[in-house]
Write the structure tokens for this entry.
Amino acid sequence: MLNALRAAVVTVLLMLNALVGRLGAQVNSDWTEPFPPFRIAGNLYYVGSKGLANYLITTPRGHILINSDLESSVPLIRASVEKLGFKFSDIRILLISHAHWDHDGGSAAIKKITGAKYMVMDADVPVVESGGKTDFQYGNVPASLYPPTRVNRVLHDGDEVKLGGATLVARLTPGHTKGCTTWTMKVKDAGKIYDVVIVGSPNVNPGYKLVDNSAYPKIASDYERTFRVLKSLPVDIFLGAHGSYFDMETKYARQQDGAATPFIDPAGYNKYVADREQAFRTELAAQKAATADTSVTAIFKDTGSTRVFSAEAQRFKLPEQRQSLRALLKKERGLWQAGKPRDYRFLLRVGCFCPGTRGWLLIEVRSGQPLRAWDKAGKSAALTDWNTFSIDGLYDNLEQSVDRNGQVQIAFDPRWHFPRYVGTVTLPGPDAWSNTEVRGFRPIQ
Ligand SMILES: [Zn+2]
């Protein structure tokens, strides 16, 4: 009895979880809000909802439908197609903008009703056929999954889809999904031919990792490719996977008011693409700046302790021992230069009784010049001040300090002959001390 009760409670909890999971899915209210179907130009029609765009390309040999939307959208799309006087069952080919649930969730149902051939860009095929489970971003989000749907034809960049005199070209515009597709076609309207572009999506969704994304390593370069492609396309009529891309509602209203060709908008297209590219570049720059380089932070494990004084260091009193210090520096620097290290990394800490010291920094030197620096958190550090220099820069500093009076303590690396510890106390003030340490020296091969 108790067990049965417990089982019932568990069942209810599971159902609640499933329900919350569903509600938790990102479903904008305008995605499911009906919108009047209309002719865009020639044989190209809008049959989507207010927020999710669907396109019907009609031909004497049946029709092509772009996007299937959410699982629940199918009756809405069907009603729109029929309102225009076409038969839903005449859809022969089903295409998508990209493999996200708001564009491909209804594909299994539409295939079942119409028997249409489902044609999908190669890199989106595994996602579509797994019902969203292999999506690099949303694969583990239950609410973004949908019925797995078998693909009948795998498309590659530049492939043509032909039916009854209509030709659509699949342009790979990846990043948003790996196989995100921008469709292009020509339509004839009132005796003129127009270039149509239906943008797949150039958007970087919230949470997308553009840097060090192990599930999609080339995501950033894929977006770069997308913007190159989008900027290269000839365009008269500007459309996209969501009406919001091209301000569908405003243009529809203008068409209702009698404007002949409101969807012809190359300037709006260029502005949209430029705006999206800027958004991508801003996000990429922010993520790069925030990303700690873990290969760098590991190198800092050697920097737990610092030395203010070094027992092994040789001690020189200036001016009395200036000549012998000069001779030692000359000898060691000669040995350092004989090793000819021009490209190397090392950890540098400049400590002193002064503001602005930055603790340990990893310095990368190329062709003898400091090229990059990182702090202990793996973040890039500026190369602009006295906290950052090369080994030769350190030698230069030392040779200058020999001219001052005070005390110098110095120890050299026996293998590479760089100064691994330098302490200076400049007379007469007790505060004017500094110590500089170099560790983890590694030539770059
Ligand atoms: Zn999407």
